[in-house]
Design brief:
mainly alpha
Length: 101
């Protein structure tokens, strides 16, 4: 049934499209997490360098930034787990209905 000229989408196509979007989001989250890891490594190097030079204020600021980066990393890990859970539940439900993702 068409409403106002919009083409009705097949349930299988919608499910496949949503699964692709979820996988894309997972890759984006993983990229962001890897960038945060690189930033963390750089911060550790900068902290050590500033500590050797005796710059306490800079060390303190960088340490706070390091804590924030680590918190972001843990959030990214939990978000990725939630997205994977959604994808798994979609897969289980689609298997029950006979839709191949």
């Amino acid at each position: 049934m068409r409403i106002f000229g919009k083409k009705e989408q097949d349930i299988k196509e919608v499910a496949k499209q949503q699964c692709r979007e979820i996988k894309k989001n997972e890759r984006d989250i993983e990229r962001e997490r890897m960038a945060l890891q690189r930033e963390e490594k750089q911060l550790v190097i900068d902290i050590k360098k500033a500590a050797k030079e005796g710059q306490e204020k800079i060390v303190k600021t960088l340490a706070k930034q390091l804590v924030r980066v680590r918190e972001q990393q843990s959030r990214m890990i939990s978000i990725k787990g939630q997205v994977q859970g959604i994808r798994n539940s979609m897969t289980v439900k689609s298997n029950g209905t006979g839709i191949d993702l």
